[in-house]
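Re: [help] complex structure
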Amino acid sequence: MKSFVSFLRACCLVYGLLATSFAGQVYAAAAQSPEAIYAELAKLKPEDRAKRIEEGARKEGKLNFIHTFRGKLARDHVRLFEKRYPYVKVEMADMGSQDAAERFIAEETAGRHLTDILSLAVPDLPVILKQDLFANYPTPATRRVPKKFEGFLDKDNRWVPWYWSEHGISYNTNLIPADKAPKSWQDLCNPAYKGKVSFDPPETRFMVGLYVMMGEDKFQAWLKCMGENQPIIQRGHTQRMNLMLSGDHAIQGDNFLYVGAEEKKKDPKTPYAIVYSAPILAYAGVMVINKNTQHPYASALFSDWTLSDESQKYVADEFRGPLIGKHPYLPDNVKVVTFGYVGDDVVERLHGYWNKYIGKKK
Amino acid sequence: MNMAAGSSNSGRRFSLNGSKLALALVVLILVYQVVIPLAMVIWTSLKLERPGEAGFFDLSFSLANYVRAFGSRDFWQATWNTLGFALVSTALSFGLGTFLAWVVHRTNTPFARLIGVITLGRIIIPGILITVSWILLASPSIGILNRSLEALTGLSPILNIYSFWGMVWVHSLEMTPLAYLLLSAALQSMDPRLEEASAVAGAGHGSTLRKISLPLALPAVGAAVMLLLIYTIEAFEVPLLLAGRAHFRVYTTEIYFNTARTPTDWGLSGAYSVAILILCAVFLAVYFRLVRHGERYQTVTGKDFRPRRIDLGRWRYFASAVSLSLVFLITGLPFLVMLYASLLRRYQPPSFEVLQGMGLSNYREILDDPAYSIDPLWNSTLVGLGSATAVMLLVSVMSYFVHKTRMRGRKLIDFFGFAPVAMPSVVLGTAFLWFYLLVPLPVLGTLTIIALAYVTRYMAVALRFVSTSMLQIHSELEEAAAVAGGDWWRNFRRIYLPLLRPGLMAGWFWVMVHAYRELTIALMLARSSNRTAAVIIYDLWENGSFPQLSAFGVLIFGLLIVLVLIGQTIGKRFGVQEQV
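Output below.
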């Protein structure tokens, strides 16, 4: 009986400690919300603001972050930050943008504020925007974003763009000499390229980019003629690029250009060329801070750091698209068409066109 | 509850010590691991709101997701295609698997053990690598085999991996080890006296296999065919990489095209899952009807029983040559492509220049960062050991209640044990994530949550492995032990578990290996400290390094082969011994 009473006492103690800790968290959260902190920070001079953020981050000492760079690429990026700010320990998960969005929604809906900040592709934002889960975070860091990328900024300061991804046309130079290569998106409909151009299965981002560049009618007409040209439909951007470079097929109708560029850097004999005369479709990768972040200062520190020279150089060194500084392999005069997200009704129509002209062909 | 021990010939009341406790535990685990996720899937399929949106928990339901899922003609065309793909692939992989299992376990074919190990080696190589390896072998443009055949015959291209038959070939080879494992478990517990009687009556080896061995292994045959059909219907990697270029749409690609958007359409995914669930229920009903006379398959009795190999005479060399050729195609050839690619900086078809540039840089780069190679391999080993052991113990007890008692509701246990096969990994992973976000147990971000999800994921296939062996055990053994006064748990541990060894070992191996390969659940539940080998495979794939991915595949292959050999050595110490 005595031991049972001791057990009950121990349980009460543990419960009390947990309750106190929980109440403490609630109190801390209630004392000043992240958005209130960010509004206050916005009133400070940049130097004072930076100092306040660093002090706050030092006290918090931790950051839970979801990166949409993968594997080593993500880890080395975060290591740079940790080297610069050793007092912030980053707990990182890396996954695709869509998975990141789904996980974030699940956590927040369950009331578990486990993620402080995440990197997402802009086309994946609408579902989270609808649920109002992002903190408004005005920051002077975005002043560095050059004019040509201003379209990536959000007037409500719900995200901070920090790199861009590109879709473009490329080809195997062993299979197609430069003078016979396509020069534009429309050229892909040329019967000379029948059965030689590869695409992923219907991809919202790519279709939205074309829609923004061409308009709806021209996009529909382009899909129709592409469908008649018997495109290769195969899942996996990287795999398709590797197969093309191995000589499996000739042209990438839609792919990230960096995979081939990286290969070319490693081995200059790689038979790879980019069609610079066709506009490049570009969307931003952005940092978004959870409205309920448990580490508001560390989140702000990380978000601002992604636009620093150090982080941007890393982006360029890894053959992704930096917002600040020179692009690692695209010439300055290449035409870049930036795009964000469109309404659900447009997305639905674009998928419908794909299914009609390409997807359902047997 | 009316529970009766004995398969069908005993009406004895079921009141052995410990059994009710075990049953209660099984039911609790089933509810926790299967019923709750399943209920979440069914609920979602009947809702128009996404999880987390207002109204998701309201008691208003709609069939709109089902109408969307099954209302289009294209979907039914894809279903028809899938049926053809599933039937042909199942027939081929079942034939190959059965032949190899018979050669390895029931004959004196030379190199039988080697043939068995190489067959199992196929399971170890990640599916993505195998499919890509076959593209590199039989692509019309760059396939190594096509180039070789062109050099020999002047004809080009002879093989086309981007075709219906290419898909059937790659997928059948992928599934052959499953058929092999299921049939192996059954053939290892075969009573040789029945085959000897057949031989005495003048029947040849083929006739004995057809008329005696396979009918006696009917539970394994039924389980193999059922699982092969279901896995082919659910096949994803092969159709996704090959079907697009073959202009051939199957069920899974159709589902993928219809749901793979941001945000994920959970309602539609749920509707598809429920359809597969219904299909599984139909298969299970057919299976139960097939094995309704459980006593007919009881080859493990109280009498002296030691499996013995059939002497094939001179034919044993022929059997060995055919089997070695088969396993070379199944495992050897793709492994060699993987090994070759792992030594390159960039994949290129073989040439003198390419061979000169080969090196070990991919291995060095991978091993250079232990957090990215050793740690995930260790995590997968822990998850594999834990989930494989837990799930095999669980399904052993479940199988006992299903096949060795006549309690009411026993088929429901089998149904719920088998139901997870109908839940796509992405749906199951999400269900687990949601559940543990809502239930404040400290498992998020740990290996435990992945292991728990794997217990559910692999319960179905593990249950079939063990059920096959359980049906072969005669109840007289347990009855004799009960008369001698042993309690239920002791009898179960001392009688059933050793006699179930073939099924247990095969199932354990299957689950263990898949803990290294399973990607979707591992990705959904991964955080900084619980990355598994599969997550690294995906990262390497996404980051565009097929040669590095191949190097990692070779490392996994080596590690798992060592584990398999250790497992076999341990397994040989227990259970039924072969008669030499």
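Residues 1-14, 575-580 of chain B have pLDDT under 50 and may be disordered.
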